Description:
This protein is α/β, with parallel strands linked by helices.
Amino acid sequence: MKNSPTPRPVRAEFLKSAQSINDSVEESLSEVVFLGRSNVGKSSTINLLAGRKNLAKSSATPGKTRLINFFDVGYKLGEEDYTVRFVDLPGFGYAKVSKSLKEIWQKNLVEFIQNRTAIRLFIHLRDARHPHAKIDEEVERYIHSFLRPDQRYLTVFTKADKLNQKERGALLRDFPGAILISNLKKSGQERIQQEIFHTIFGAEF
């Protein structure tokens, strides 16, 4: 698949919501986990990548959703069909008092991300306007503390349209390898699709 065109989403479906690893869907596909603060635009990013406007639904109350949501997304790459499983984790960062990550994320969520063998890629969504938020830095260190050799961690900055060109350049210097996206302008998603396919299927772009 060397020098492949960008994968194109052609179908997407919601599978189920789960409270823990014990009632999650069967680990039959490689999984991409989306994590980030409750107001970072996680649902909008998933919808953009899946090519479906209302696949993942945003909660009116930040931090309210506490379930793990599973989606299967079908892609066309050249003449071949591929399916990837997206996993939407509850947002973090709305605790009223300072707590450890294991308290912000319930114990069952910690068990899920550490023990779910199907996870191949963690996509950590961060607000481009607040790139050094303490909670995001803690999450990054936490994920890297147990990252397996067959897993990757990718930083994606949302709301890049809120920055000017100089600010975007500075952000990429501070976070080499990160991707900047704008759900409003629908920009940057192709690079994320390529990273997903490179990680899971070994595609080169």
